[in-house]
Amino acid sequence: MKIVQILPELNEGGVERGTVELSREFVKLGHESIVISCGGRLVSQIEADGGRHIKLDVCKKNPFIAPRKVYQLRKVLQDLKPDIVHVRSRVPAWLCFFAKRGLDIKIVSTVHGFNSVNFYSSIMAKADAVICVSNSIKEYIQKHYHTQEEKITVIPRGIDLKLFNPNNLDKQFITDFKKQYDLDDKFIVSTVGRITQLKDLETFIHAIAIAKETMPQIKALIVGGVHRDKQNYFESLKDLLQALHLDDEVIFAGSQIKVAEIYMLSNVVVSASKKPESFGRSVAEAIAMNTPVIATNHGGVKDIIKDGINGYLINVGDVNELAIKIIESKDLKFDGYKYITDNFSLGQMVEKTLKVYKGIL
Predict the structure, then answer these.
(1) For the chain, what is the domain count?
(2) Distance in angstroms (rounded) separating the CA atoms of residues 32 and 52
(3) pTM of the entire structure?
């Protein structure tokens, strides 16, 4: 098959990572993979993996230049004659909607998030086939757009089990990291992701203060970068640590490349997000490293966490419940790698996606 994926840009993010991974796997299976975007730092990865990238402005929402962009995309599609066009965002979806008129092209969309409910967002439900990354997303689009059941397939984001494999780790990094932050013989609680208000780090910090009374050996890691517009929020978190006398217990570790190693050295990972995650890739990645996860009980994480087995689901903003579950998590033992292999692997995502393509051809 000749498969075209279209997304706004190819910089870091869950949608971008999924696009790169699918392109790589399609090429391995003998398919022709083309990605159309405005460009970005992951273009080189697409090309290194054997895919082709076409740079086109499929990003800007400006309606005044939309006709020109539709014309440009139509010309590209006429030349490519793809079997499948897979749109991953609303602007590309609308451009394809107009560009494909008169062309024999099948469109697949992936709904990656809980987009605002309006006419603009409805385009994602108008494709020949609609992929949802979780059951929560499926319920959301069925409720608001009445999408036909037979058009929808739930395909969770696949976890790369070569990267997130307990046997494929940089052990020296783990040793050095633990030494750097004095983590030996400590109970390590981590939260991973960019520092924003939506992550509800205040609840995380308050829960650490409560858990410390029972577990004096506790250490908390906040792993993630701080954008310029979040500096004031970051400073408020540091003030909170001082007020709660947690300067020694809570560590801001900044952005880290070795995320699998961070999950592995942690005793438990927390995702206290106020906003529901469409899937929760980081939750699945941590569980693949046999590390339990405590997450707020909404969104796609409900598909991943088996409460009381590989983690716990808690109410949003419930400090006491989070503290209790942090303490209880020390008793959880499970084979997370096998569980993710059986249910959320990259191989399964690729297989199910190709099945959707073949089903509409």
Answers:
(1) 2
(2) 8
(3) 0.85
Closest CA to 135 of 356, 344, 345, 360: 344
> For residue 190, what are the CA distances in angstroms to 66, 236, 253, 355?
44, 19, 10, 37
Distances (CA, A) of 88 to 7, 73, 110, 133, 157: 5, 15, 5, 11, 13
**Alpha-carbon torsion 44, 154, 148, 297, what sign?**
negative
Sign of CA dihedral 210, 335, 261, 186: positive
Q: Which of 41, 46, 33, 36 is nearest to 13 (CA)?
A: 41
**CA–CA dist 108, 4 (Å, integer):** 10
The secondary structure of 226-283 as a DSSP string is --GGGHHHHHHHHHHHHHTT-TTTEEEEE--S-HHHHHHH-SEEEE--SSPBSS-HHH
* Residue 153 shares a structural domain with residue 177: no
Residue 73 lies in a domain: yes
Whole-Å CA distances, 252 to 132, 195, 264: 34, 10, 18
Q: How many residues does the chain have?
A: 361
The verdict on 323 and 350 lying in the same domain is no
Range of the domain at 191: 171-343
Give the type of residue at 156: P
166 in a structural domain:
no
**Mean pLDDT in each 10-residue stretch from start to end of the chain (361 residues)?**
97 87 97 97 96 94 89 96 97 96 94 93 96 95 95 94 94 97 97 92 98 97 92 96 95 94 97 90 95 96 96 97 98 96 94 97 93
Is residue 125 within 8 A of residue 111, CB to CB? The reply is yes
Burial of 102 (0-12, 13-18, 19+ CB in 10 A): exposed
Give the residue from 43, 60, 61, 64 showing the smallest Cα distance to 52. 43
Count CB-CB contacts under 10 A for residue 116: 8
CA distance 195 to 77: 40
How many Å apart are CA 165 and CA 116, to the nearest integer?
A: 36
Cα gap 50→258, rounded to integer Å = 25
Domain holding 178: CATH number?
Answer: 3.40.50.2000
